[in-house]
Structure formats: C-alpha cells, structure tokens
Amino acid sequence: MALRPKRKFHIVVEKDEAGFYVGRCKELPNAFTQAKTLSQLKKRMGEVIGLIMEDIEEEHAKNPDKIVEVVV
Hints:
By secondary structure, the chain is of the alpha+beta class. It has one domain: Double Stranded RNA Binding Domain. The protein has one helix and three strands, in the order βββα. The protein has one helix at about 40-60; strands spanning about 10-15, 20-25, 30-35. A three-stranded antiparallel β-sheet has the order 1-2-3, covered by helices on one side. The protein starts with 10 loop residues before the first strand and ends in a 10-residue tail after the last helix.
C-alpha cells in the first residue's frame, strides 16, 4: 500500500432503534458502518474509508486514463 497524505472526512452519526451508532461518510457515499460505541464507530469508519481509498488507488493504477483528479 502506498503512503498517501492524510485527509479529513465528515461522518454523519445517528443512533438506531437498537441503540447502535450508525455512521456514513459525506464524501464517500458507499462508506458506512455501525457500532455499539462512538469510539468503535470512528475506528470502523476509518477502516471502511481506508479500504475504499485503496480500491480507488488500485483502480487508478490499472486504468490511469479513466480516472482524473479534480482539486477545488
């Protein structure tokens, strides 16, 4: 895995009917998970986001002409 600069992501956190924390990432709509505690949720969200970012990097390495970066 290549070293990449640290980035901040915004997580929307809600509690479900069973009392679990549910988190979803605003920047990566496919990044979501749940946990019993807020600290577990933060850790799991970091893992989910990391896996998605790895997938994006691998896809870019395989098809560099199909993925472009936009800096705003």
